[in-house]
Design a protein that fits this description.
single chain, about 350 residues, Dna Ligase, domain 1, 3 domains, nine-stranded antiparallel β-sheet, four-stranded parallel β-sheet, globular
Length: about 350
């Protein structure tokens, strides 16, 4: 009988929980490292508690596992260096460093001929002289690090907005992106194994509300040419980064049908939750297959689906959401509760998949 692989997952949120659930089907033992006592993953796996920069506790955790992966990007560099020295970590740290920093990410797109929106860099007051000449409005100012789900970013409509927003962001290192006329947002999720085998899921159509993913649709009904191009770019990224694991690339399609890369997420992604019911292999199982160098699963769609995120108070309106007209054509409904104790505005409390 094959020895079970112990996979350490940094982060005990809903992504860690869903990875832990998927691991049971693959003869994998999941172990979670979490910085919070009420982590969703504690429902399904053994959890080690400690801060993400507590090197002593990190080392103790690492000694229990064969491989490490993670459910979020913002792991302290010091901790990553320690983990990397002691045990294989996937996705690889060099890829994480690029996706942790929006300036490095844009440079990567530029170096690999992947189109992205016009971007200006704001690190110091002196940069404002160049920005003043080159900026177009409206634009979006974003911190280069730690921003997600609408955090650390503002829409700016004039120069005084820019100054005010930068002050509100404590004059952190920022990028300024030109706001484009978006017709559609899609994400492409792909997986690459240690041996370099790649599988790409069909594209997902995403609808955001207040910069947070609200609804994902599969199939995305994106024209074949655009879908193929998005897939081609994602394969290029996976290979250039010598990536191992699941990667999500978010794209905009503008009003002229141009495909524009927005950002990358080096992990399982919110839009990919729909794969649990809609595809032959879920993104969570695929990620674990990739990092343990197993054969990747089939990615074809079994049945059309729509995923609705339950954000904040949505968790107390489940029956009302289920009866909405836009979901009335779907015959089956699956609720995924993240079991978070406290409801907060903008907090992802669960999701519903309509099949």
């Amino acid at each position: 009988m094959k020895k079970k692989i112990k996979v350490g997952i940094i982060g005990g949120g809903q992504l860690g929980m869903m990875l832990a659930k998927a691991s049971k089907r693959l003869n994998i033992i999941p172990l979670i490292y979490s910085n919070t006592k009420d982590s969703p993953a504690a429902k399904v796996a053994k959890v080690y508690y400690g801060d993400f920069d507590d090197i002593k506790k990190i080392k103790k955790f690492i000694n229990q596992v064969d491989i490490v992966t993670y459910e979020f990007e913002n792991i302290p560099t010091k901790s990553l260096k320690i983990i990397e020295q002691l045990v294989p970590i996937f996705p690889p740290v060099h890829a994480l460093k690029i996706t942790q920093d929006r300036i490095k990410e844009k440079k990567f797109f530029n170096d690999n001929d992947i189109p992205y929106v016009k971007t200006l860099i704001l690190k110091k007051n002196l940069d404002l002289q160049i920005i003043k000449k080159e900026i177009s409005f409206p634009s979006i100012i974003k911190t280069t690090r730690l921003g997600y789900d609408g955090k650390g970013q503002y829409t700016i409509n004039n120069y005084s907005d820019l100054l005010e927003s930068w002050n509100m962001l404590d004059k952190a290192n920022c990028i300024i992106e030109e706001k484009i006329n978006i017709k559609k947002e899609i994400s492409i999720i792909g997986a690459r194994t240690i041996n370099g085998d790649i599988k790409i899921f069909p594209s997902f159509k995403n609808i955001h509300k207040h910069h947070i993913l609200d609804i994902t649709r599969l199939p995305s009904r994106t024209n074949k040419k655009t879908e193929n191009l998005a897939t081609e770019y994602t394969i290029k990224i996976l290979n250039k980064l010598k990536y191992v694991g699941v990667l999500c690339v978010e794209f905009f399609i503008d009003s002229s049908d141009n495909l524009i890369a927005n950002e990358m997420a080096p992990r399982v992604h919110n839009s990919g939750h729909i794969t649990i019911e809609a595809c032959k292999t879920s993104q969570f199982e695929q990620h674990l297959r990739a990092i343990t160098n197993k054969t990747l699963g089939k990615v074809s769609i079994i049945r059309p689906a729509v995923m609705k995120n339950l954000i904040g108070n949505d968790i107390s309106k489940i029956n009302l959401i289920k009866t909405k007209k836009e979901f009335s054509n779907f015959k089956k409904v699956n609720l995924h509760n993240y079991y978070k104790k406290e409801i907060k505005p903008g907090r992802k409390m669960g999701h519903i998949t309509f099949i």
